[in-house]
Amino acid sequence: MATVETKTAETIVITGANRGIGLGLVRCFAAAGHHVVAACRQPDKAEALRLVPGAVEIMQLDVADAVSSAAFARQIGTRTIDVLINNAGVMGGNKQGFANMDYDAWLRTFEINTLGPFRLTSLLLPNLKQSKHARVVTISSQMGAFGLDMGFGTYAYRSSKSAVSKVMQVLALELKADNIIVCPVHPGWVQTDMGGANAQIPVEQSAGGLFKLISTLTLAQSGRFWTWDGREHIW
Ligand SMILES: NC(=O)c1ccc[n+]([C@@H]2O[C@H](COP(=O)([O-])OP(=O)(O)OC[C@H]3O[C@@H](n4cnc5c(N)ncnc54)[C@H](OP(=O)(O)O)[C@@H]3O)[C@@H](O)[C@H]2O)c1
Fold first, then answer.
1. Which of 9, 87, 129, 222 satisfies CB 3.0 to 4.6 Å to 181 for a cystine?
2. Strand boundaries in the chain, DSSP class E
3. What is the phi/psi pair of residue 136, to 5°?
4. How far is the CA of 112 from the centre of ligand 1 (A)?
5. Residue 36, in any domain of the structure
6. Can you state the angle between helices 155-175 and 103-110, rounded to 10 degrees?
7. From the CB of 108, is ligand 1 less than 6 Å away?
8. How far apart are CA 86 and CA 97, in angstroms?
9. Residue 88 maps to which CATH number?
10. Which residues have C-beta within 8 Å of that of residue 51, sequence separation ≥ 6?
11. What's the pLDDT at 7?
12. Which pLDDT value is given to residue 229?
């Protein structure tokens, strides 16, 4: 069972919070007594999110949209953010093979999976700087790891995840002076709309493991790639 390491309630921003791993993370952090800013594209349709008990504040955010992201940051205002979880992501559609690439969809995948986390981190930097234990955790994927051979295909998704992992590695170096921990993480192969019903682990297991990892991350772990269950992942 996940243990609560923190003494005081923290403020946690989670993107893509209305379903899948994001929703699982909202449940974990809210159950532990934290204040969760649950960001999603369509708050009016986020029925499951509204039912989560605890201090959950639902806000509109499309991470691919610069205007929406700036409006989100304005709404956050000057409050301290302890944890930003860049979870929102897409697989990128069916046409991402060598012979049938949808190039517009590839660009869109990059906007959501790679540019979105970078932009949001930069917009919320003043808020993160105010925290005594600031963490930026980006849900990447083992499918973007250079050190793993996982067959071919899904070029858009894989390249967007390789890129966001690299972006977070570099950002970790840049934000070290501010004591901000930055890590990409692999959440496991998870039973969500994206992962499918045959995936290896349920959302609760992935989110519970990520909760534990995120709660205890130290600066020494920053700039390294982690798995949901606390193991270091190959780049
Ligand atoms: N499931 C797995 O096995 C697995 C493995 C490795 C990595 N991951 C990563 O884990 C993260 C969560 O995946 P999941 O399995 O929970 O997927 P999911 O069930 O498909 O949920 C994806 C979430 O991202 C949101 N989203 C998509 N585009 C967005 C945008 N432009 N702005 C804001 N939110 C957006 C979705 O919102 P809407 O409902 O509005 O579409 C939804 O809340 C993703 O980054 C994914 O790449 C998943």
1. 222
2. 11-15, 35-40, 56-60, 83-86, 135-139, 181-186, 226-227
3. -115, 115
4. 10
5. yes
6. 20
7. no
8. 26
9. 3.40.50.720
10. none
11. 59
12. 98
Q: What token pair was written down for 209? A: 């493991």
What tokens were used for 150? 């996982």
Rounded alpha-carbon distances, angstroms, from residue 69 to 33, 39, 60, 72: 26, 10, 9, 5
CB 195 within 8 A of CB 145: no
Catalytic residue numbers, as ranges: 157
Q: Please, are residues 165 and 144 in contact by the beta-carbon 8 Å criterion?
A: yes
Tell me the longest C-alpha to C-alpha distance in the chain.
Answer: 54
Give SS3 for 74: helix
| 0.70 surpassed by pTM | yes
Half-sphere exposure of 23 (CA within 13 A, CB side): 17
Probe target for ligand 1 pocket from 85, 143, 194, with the most ligand atoms within 8 Å of CB: 194
In a domain, 233, yes or no: no
Below-50 pLDDT ranges, the chain: 1-6
144 lines ligand 1 (CB under 6 A): no
> For ligand 1, is residue 87 a contact (CB within 6 Å)?
yes
Residue 215 structural domain: 11-227
C-alpha span between 49 and 42 (Å, rounded): 11
Per-residue pLDDT tens for 121-144? 999 999 999 999 999 999 999 999
Residue 201 falls within a domain, yes or no? Answer: yes
Query: Does the CB atom of residue 117 touch ligand 1 within 6 A?
Result: no
Count of domains forming the chain: 1
